[in-house]
Amino acid sequence: MVAADSPARCQLQGINQYNGEFSCPWCLIKGETYWIDERRHKWIFPTKKVHQSRDQENFTSHLRELRDLLHNGNNNVTNVFGIKAPSKLILLPKFDIVHGFVFDYMHTCLLGVVRTLTCAWLDSKNHNFPFYIGHQEVEINCRINLCKFPVECQRILREIKDIKYWKAHEWKIWMILAVPLLNGILSQPYLKHFSNFVTAITILCKDVITRADLETSDNLIKQFCVVLPDLYDSSYCSFNVHLVSHSVDCVKNWGPLWAYSLFQFENYNGVLTNSFSGTTEVGLQIAKKLIIAENVCFIKCFFFKFNGKKLLFINNGKAEILSEVT
Ligand SMILES: [Zn+2]
Question: Mean pLDDT for the chain?
Fold first, then answer.
């Protein structure tokens, strides 16, 4: 299994970037240009059609086709169905170059769909749209401040004025709280639409997911994707929205979304970046720090004699006298 965000995944799989044609890692949707104005445009992925899936067989066949075209001097060809380079991962025994890549709900849902829609609701540029709630920011902040979070919750939700600094954990809290919190603020069709998305993703994050759960989630996601361009605009049919339509298949293959989300890996990135200074022998510095950290953990849970009289247990840096040694 390979878990990566979209920019990294495109490179690892050897396919077009997410803002190009045929860039979905799991299907052959082409996408199309959406003109924002006369000069600016973006690449969108229409939500109302089902597209042929990629699999190991058609992926390697398209890669071979690309190789043959380039071999025959067709230097203008840049890709075949989005495949533009041979991924080294193809050489990994038993690795499925299509389904070996997993859906990352941290980037796709929390930092993707949830953030995009929330920012659209609050952006004053959208003041003419029925989903605009930026003028209700004070009321939203009041409701956020009334929320009581469990003591286990390491990060609480900051106010809307800090929204551009919200971390993925805050977007996760917001995703869960937004529907009750915006009741009476965001108009019902939009609230219901977002609620479908939240329910679907929450189901896919359960510890135990039944076939009925998968079916419910699949239906909710289909509804969410199909209705999105009518409620908002086709410009909201982003790459992330399209990827959400593959989330249920990923859960069928690999289990709940939390099990391979990038939360855990990115948390560890913080540990790694704090394990070196400067640019000299970075790998060696990290290795040394990790070995020291592992040994400290071992010492923390080690019994030893103190003054030849007392048996101590060191736990998290605190010494506890367990018994007198005679
Ligand atoms: Zn796709």
Answer: 88
Whether residue 226 has pLDDT greater than 60: yes
Buried b (16+ CB within 10 A) or exposed e, 145-182: eeeeeeeeeeeebbebeebeebebbbbbbbbebbbebb
Instruction: Please give the Cα distance from 43 to 34 (Å, whole number).
Output: 6
pLDDT of 305 reads 45
> What's the pLDDT score for residue 264?
82
* 284 Cα–ligand 1 center, Å: 40
Binning pLDDT at 50, 70 and 90, where does residue 68 land? very high
User: If you average pLDDT over residues 198-220, what whole number do you get?
Assistant: 96
Share of the chain above pLDDT 90, in %: 69
Query: Cα–Cα distance between 230 and 235 in angstroms, integer?
Result: 11
The Cα 157–Cα 142 span in angstroms is 12
Q: Which of 301 and 269 is assigned the larger pLDDT?
A: 269
What ipTM goes with this model? 0.99
- The three-state secondary structure class of 208 is coil
- Classified as helix, coil or strand, 324 is strand
**CA of 22 relative to ligand 1 center, distance in Å:** 9
Query: Residue 79: left (phi > 0), alpha (psi -120 to 50), or beta?
Result: beta
Centre of ligand 1 from the C-alpha of residue 25, in Å? 6
Residue 190 CA to ligand 1 centre (angstroms): 24
Tokens 């990115």 locate to: 266
Q: How far is the CA of 201 from the centre of ligand 1 (A)?
A: 17
Q: Is residue 111 exposed (0-12), middle (13-18) or buried (19+ Cβ within 10 Å)?
A: buried
